[in-house]
């Protein structure tokens, strides 16, 4: 049993037993609420993320945490946009490994004009569609239900902001940025935002881009490339 699973087992067991103990109405409600939260965690369902700022600020986001997706926490998401914005006056964003769509929605909320989201996982696609519907600005979003490799052969136009959080970070980020540049999909003043595990060391330069900013937040590292 992995560490996370072991921790969840003990905490879940404690919360379950606590719900059976007559500590009073208020305490019962608190314990039972915690048990419901733990039930969602045990099913890999996380629902307490939100849009941090901008037009949609404060609105809740659904997400799905599992083997194929890894949600960016509100703290890291806020830090990312403080590094590169925090607000924008138009522009086009590409979220190549979208997950829940949280980062692309945050970009639109903060002033980007349109977003293309790429996601191959069917469950994550459903979550993205629900989150886009929440914004009531569906026309600003385009969801490509495919993997990044296929999407890169179909993309057109240029992007001003690219968000990269791939499962195999270093090699895939280098390949993606190189291909995006070769296909002329990157605007002159584009910002390439890469989120990886803190242990991943990305190269100082990729294609025509160099590291502009790099910061570590907990277990995550955010690296921003510009020309």
Describe the structure.
This protein is of the alpha/beta class and 227 residues long. It contains 7 helices and 10 strands. It has helices spanning 3-20, 25-42, 74-84, 102-109, 122-135, 148-152, 169-182; strands at 45-50, 60-64, 92-95, 114-118, 141-144, 159-164, 186-197, 205-206, 209-217, 220-226. Strands 5-4-3-6-7-10-9-8 form an 8-stranded mixed β-sheet. A hairpin with a 2-residue loop joins strand 8 and strand 9 (209-217). Residues 14-21 and 25-47 have low confidence and may be disordered.
Compute the number of helices: 7
Number of strands: 10
Strand order of the largest sheet: 5-4-3-6-7-10-9-8
Shape: globular
Low-pLDDT ranges: 14-21, 25-47
Residues in β-strands, percent: 25-35%
Radius of gyration, Cα only, in angstroms?
Answer: 19 Å
Q: SS-based structural class? A: alpha/beta
Terminus-to-terminus distance: 45 Å
Mean pLDDT: 84
Give the SSE string.
Answer: HHEEHEHEHEHEHEEEE
SSE inventory with pairings:
Blueprint: H1 3-20, H2 25-42, E1 45-50, E2 60-64, H3 74-84, E3 92-95, H4 102-109, E4 114-118, H5 122-135, E5 141-144, H6 148-152, E6 159-164, H7 169-182, E7 186-197, E8 205-206, E9 209-217, E10 220-226
Helix pairs in contact: 1-2
Descriptors:
two-stranded antiparallel ribbon, single chain, 227 residues, eight-stranded mixed sheet, 26% strand, alpha/beta
Entry summary:
This protein is α/β, with parallel strands linked by helices. Helix content is 39%, strand content 26%.
């Amino acid at each position: 049993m992995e560490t996370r699973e072991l921790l969840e087992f003990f905490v879940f067991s404690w919360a379950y037993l606590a719900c059976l103990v007559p500590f009073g109405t208020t305490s019962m409600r608190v314990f039972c609420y915690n048990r419901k939260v733990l039930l969602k965690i045990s099913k890999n369902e996380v629902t307490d993320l939100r849009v941090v700022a901008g037009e949609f600020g404060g609105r809740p986001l659904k997400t799905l945490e599992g083997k194929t997706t890894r949600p960016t926490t509100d703290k890291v998401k806020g830090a990312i946009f403080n590094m590169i914005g925090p607000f924008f006056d138009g522009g086009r964003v590409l979220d190549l490994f979208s997950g829940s769509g949280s980062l692309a929605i945050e970009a639109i909320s903060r002033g980007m004009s349109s977003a293309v989201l790429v996601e191959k996982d069917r469950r994550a696609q459903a979550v993205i569609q629900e989150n886009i519907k929440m914004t009531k600005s569906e026309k600003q979003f385009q969801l490509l239900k495919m993997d990044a490799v296929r999407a890169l052969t179909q993309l057109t136009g240029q992007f001003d902001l690219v968000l990269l959080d791939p499962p195999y970070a270093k090699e895939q980020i280098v390949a993606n940025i190189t291909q995006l540049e070769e296909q002329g999909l990157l605007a002159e003043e584009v910002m390439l935002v890469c989120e990886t595990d803190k242990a991943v060391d990305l190269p100082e330069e990729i294609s025509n881009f160099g590291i502009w900013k790099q910061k570590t937040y907990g277990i995550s590292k955010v690296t921003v490339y510009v020309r």
